[in-house]
Amino acid sequence: MALNPTDLFDIRSLLSEEERMIQDSVARFTDQKVLPIIGDCFDQGRFPKELVPEIAAMGLLGSSLPEKYGCAELNAVSYGLICQELERGDSGIRSFVSVQSSLCMYPIYAYGSEEQRQKYLPGMARGEIIGCFGLTEPHGGSDPANMKTVAKKDGGDWVINGAKMWITNGNLADIAIVWAQTDEGIQGFIVEKGTKGFEAQEVHKKMSLRASVTSALYLDSVRVPDSQRLPNVKGLKGPLGCLTQARYGITWGPIGAAIAAYTSALEYSKERVLFNRPIAATQAVQLKLADMARRITLAQLLSLQLGRLKDAGTMQPAQVSLAKWNNCRMAIDICREARDILGGAGITTEHPPIRHALNLESVITYEGTETVHQLVIGREVTGINAF
Ligand code: TGC
Ligand code: FAD
After folding, report:
1. Which residues contact 227 (CB under 8 A, 6 or more apart)?
2. Which positions fall inside the Acyl-CoA dehydrogenase/oxidase C-terminal domain (predicted)?
């Protein structure tokens, strides 16, 4: 029996019935709702906000969090499959869900008070309250310990001053999780849209993640009550703990982008006839396709095992770093190679490879650059910090 070209090791057989069902329903959503419009959205530099209610209704926002907050309480592998199928559509759609789920709902759940959870999580799960996550600053995102944004205590309030850069969902968001330096270390604050002195400004001229909103945030003496501070974490481990959740999902997402590009190149190569034979009949193209299939298979196994470790509660940040590095590198290489197989046709958004390749320029950079993750592994295996 012929093997499935996008699942050579029958990894689907390792999924539970519920996990397969979730994957199928998100795949249908991507096929029916995302793929027909996403090329145009990318061209127009437009995030398809009209899809948010359906994304929410499917339970994809904060999908790992408890049902008592209106969430689907799915396991980590299911969250990964959601990311994979959404990013098969576009990294911008997966980014929206990653930020809402792992970077905004997760810290409110993990570090927030019960009052904050009740106030925000159900509305966020319904997609009625959109969040963004402000960690990166203009002077350098890789080193968040060197944070310049400060929050000073003033009676029962906090006064926040600073700026954040490259913030996904910034101009869409109703709330921002803002990380700021305080006298007691880095702390997180929930800043609501419309708070005096708080402004989001959209980043334009992007060649990547064009179907996603990216913004700068400005905080000019923004005053928030202590009840908007996340009370249960202090120090860099707060934001880094959120990043571990989001990076885990990002190990899966690029598998979807790679599958989209590989499938497109595979189909095209069987139809494109040059020198009296389809280019798929040439050794050069077969080597490229075989290499894509090999690298996708390895990435699938890596993320699945990572998900099983996460579900068992033993996943380590360095393991996430290795998978984020490997899978982003795998996907960007495949998308660029697929673009080449399509020749000139590969340079337009009529075909997915170039859109995914351009998106992955962001995905390989955000949530820790490739170099940052390589250095995390270097530190893990040598015991020497080279940052
Ligand atoms: P270090 O000072 O050693 O550690 C500080 C504390 O944090 C703990 N920790 C972690 N906890 C959870 N998860 C992790 N991944 C953790 N890494 C470290 C650590 O145990 C320690 O705790 P404690 O209790 O001892 O205080 O910090 P480090 O040397 O490990 O960090 C250095 C480095 C470079 C790895 C870190 O700064 C880093 O990861 N930099 C990259 C920053 C980054 O990724 N920014 C992303 C911004 S958000 C974003 O890009 C969203 S895009 C989303 C989208 O659109 O999809
Ligand atoms: P820098 O940190 O200035 O890095 C520049 C270069 O130096 C990189 O090549 C890096 O690998 C290299 N480098 C860094 N340290 C070392 C070292 N020790 N040794 C050798 N080389 C090193 N951030 C948020 O907080 N929230 C968001 O929602 C968010 N969304 C984003 C969306 C998009 C589209 C993009 C592009 C970024 C987003 N980011 C977000 C920011 C992202 O996390 C940062 O871009 C990333 O962490 C890198 O920071 P930087 O851009 O300042 O690059």
Report:
1. 113, 115, 116
2. 235-381
